[in-house]
Design goal:
DUF262 domain-containing protein; single chain; 15 strands; 30 helices; 4 domains; alpha+beta; 9% strand; GmrSD_N; two-stranded antiparallel ribbon; 598 residues; five-stranded mixed beta sheet
Length: 598
């Protein structure tokens, strides 16, 4: 049997199928991303009878109902949503939802004299040569005879016969042919998933999360559209809380649901530490409730697949949608989310720039939800989740094959006698003395400022409430929150003047420290031995030259918290490499103390 068949359909037929819910557009309630000019160009191609590409659909697998009959599911529009939405909006006048979740019309104008399409604008509205909105022509109430007469009376350049020809050609758009590739409903889920993620839509490779969202949306029996909107709107509001009223006003049916009430709190929430995408939310909810990592398995379960018998069962669909819904509601719960973010902040992560691994955050939240469900003591949850998050960053645990590691870890946490038991087993294997004294020190040998290892050092400084270098009232955390810059301990210009011109060398992260700009300007391009002698002198005569510190004990303590070796008082460019080696070890030691205190 062929995996697919290729047919031709018409624009009118496809629009009719959508109206009658014979074909489902998973993205119909999501923002329409096409620019209006692309809609214009699409209509021009249809008018000229140019090919506009295929749309691809897939029918749900056969599902046995309780009475023993077979249900043929809706067709899912896998590829072509933007094109179909564009045609529907232009021809029927249907509103689309923009990136701010506001409904709007896309009006495409047509000039019969020039046979030209354009996006409607104020100038076109005043120009009698233009049909300002082609949706008028496709309306069932449209009277072509009277319209032709009125148009020709205003525009002498075209006679009634020519106007009739052009108008009929325009109206023929609804009979334009669009190719349709229909994937067989007998294909197994894995094959369809593979096909799905290989399709490019507007240059973006579709993901398994997109496919999962499609499967959620088309199942109205189990409130799939409500679950889908909850996911979408929550993630959008996390980044754009001001769009709350747009959603409330433009999607009144969803605004009346309990799910909407459960995300209302986000409109007054302002924190960028953890801004999950819909993919992140699905992954966390799925791993938490199903103890699985591969999103392709979620698609299978939502389709009712029994992994042992390879059959599709309605009871599996029922339980899968319930579990997914429970997982989504746990994720968006105000108490859960805010408490998790507080745990993240308590690990020294006070800006999103300090943690680049979304996978580490996602698994930490998954773990938090699992431990909450198991009713583990609150303080123990805080400690376990905080340490696991930092451990994940330290070991780059989820940088490769994250789905496999997610499933591996969540199942072992779930089956462990205590969560601390599993944590300690991983610590013993991953964070040995060899790691702290050798591997971590080696990892700190980099010039990448966004390195997770430099971020870990900064997290340790935030956690310890360290002062900035040569300051006693300005904390490292203050500079980070105000987006202050890191500066060079061995000034860049000083190193360059002495022949060290390789950026990978003078920009080593072991040469970086958070310092007030006024301190950095005072240091300029001086050798460490020179500017540190000045700082030492001001501690003796109590007159400030560089920074605020005027006490030798305070200076020593400040250097310790910033992991600056005491040898800096005597160092020049010839000692630079030795300095880097010594400071990397001090930084590694600080990160270790930080982890052990969590």
């Amino acid at each position: 049997m062929s995996n697919y068949i290729v047919n031709n359909s018409t624009v009118e037929s496809i629009i009719s199928w959508i109206k009658n819910k014979m074909i489902a557009i998973p993205e119909i309630q999501r923002p329409f991303v096409w620019d209006a000019t692309k809609v214009r160009d699409l209509m021009d191609s249809l008018y000229k009878n140019y090919p506009v590409g295929y749309i691809i659909t897939w029918q749900n697998p056969d599902t046995k109902l309780k009475d023993g009959s077979i249900s043929m599911g809706k067709k899912i529009l896998i590829d072509g949503q933007q094109r179909i939405t564009a045609v529907t909006a232009a021809i029927t006048g249907q509103e689309v939802v923009d990136s701010n979740y506001k409904k709007k019309r896309i009006r495409i104008a047509f000039n019969p004299i020039e046979e030209k399409f354009e996006v409607t604008n104020p100038a076109i509205l005043k120009n009698p040569k233009w049909i300002p909105d082609i949706a008028e022509v496709f309306s069932i109430d449209f009277n072509s005879f009277s319209y032709i007469n009125e148009y020709c009376e205003k525009n002498f350049e075209i006679d009634q016969n020519e106007m009739n020809r052009v108008l009929q050609k325009l109206m023929q758009i609804k009979y334009s042919s669009i190719g349709m590739i229909e994937l067989s409903h007998e294909l197994d889920i894995e094959t369809v998933t593979e096909i799905f993620i290989r399709i490019n839509s507007a240059g973006v490779v579709l993901s398994q999360a997109d496919f999962a969202m499609s499967k959620i949306t088309v199942n109205e029996t189990y409130d799939g559209p409500v679950i889908r909107k909850t996911i979408d709107y929550f993630c959008h509001l996390m980044k754009n809380p001001s769009d709350y009223s747009n959603i409330e006003n433009n999607d009144t049916s969803f605004a009346s649901t309990d799910h909407f009430q459960k995300i209302k709190w986000v409109k007054n929430y302002h924190s960028s530490i953890y801004e999950p995408s819909y993919s992140d939310l699905i992954r966390v909810a799925f791993t938490f409730k199903f103890l699985r990592g591969k999103l392709s398995n979620l698609v299978s379960l939502l389709s009712g697949r029994d992994f042992e018998t390879r059959e599709y069962k309605e009871e599996i669909i029922t339980s899968s949608f319930k579990s997914l819904n429970d997982g989504v509601l746990a994720f968006i719960n105000e108490t859960n989310f805010k408490r998790f973010v507080m745990i993240v902040k308590s690990a020294g992560i006070i800006t999103p720039q300090l943690i680049r691994s979304k996978n580490a955050l996602n698994f930490a939240y998954t773990l938090f939800l699992l431990l909450r469900e198991k009713e583990i003591d609150g303080s123990e949850i805080n400690r376990i989740v905080r340490k696991w998050l930092v451990l994940s960053v330290l070991t780059e645990r989820y940088s490769a094959s994250p789905e496999t590691m997610f499933e591996f870890d969540i199942r072992r946490f779930n089956n462990a006698i205590t969560p601390d038991e599993y944590l300690k087993s991983i610590e013993a294997g991953e964070l040995s003395d060899a790691y702290w004294n050798n591997i971590l020190v080696t990892n700190l040998n980099t010039s990448v400022k966004s390195s997770p290892y430099f971020n870990l050092f900064i997290m340790a400084q935030v956690y310890d409430k360290d002062d900035a270098f040569l300051s006693k009232s300005i904390k490292v955390s203050h500079l980070i929150e105000e987006r202050g810059d890191v500066h060079h301990i061995f000034p860049k210009k000083y190193l360059q003047k002495n022949g060290i011109n390789n950026r990978g060398i003078y920009n080593q992260i072991a040469n970086y420290v958070y310092t007030e700009q006024i301190v950095n300007l005072a240091i300029k391009d001086k050798a460490p031995s020179v500017y540190m002698a000045q700082v030492k002198q001001q501690c003796e005569n109590k007159e400030g030259v560089i920074g605020e510190i005027k006490d030798l004990n305070e200076l020593k303590y400040n250097m310790e918290m910033n992991c600056i070796p005491e040898s800096l008082f005597t160092l020049e460019y010839s000692n630079y490499n030795a300095f880097l080696q010594e400071r990397r070890q001090l930084m590694a030691n600080k990160i270790r103390r930080f982890y052990e205190k969590l």
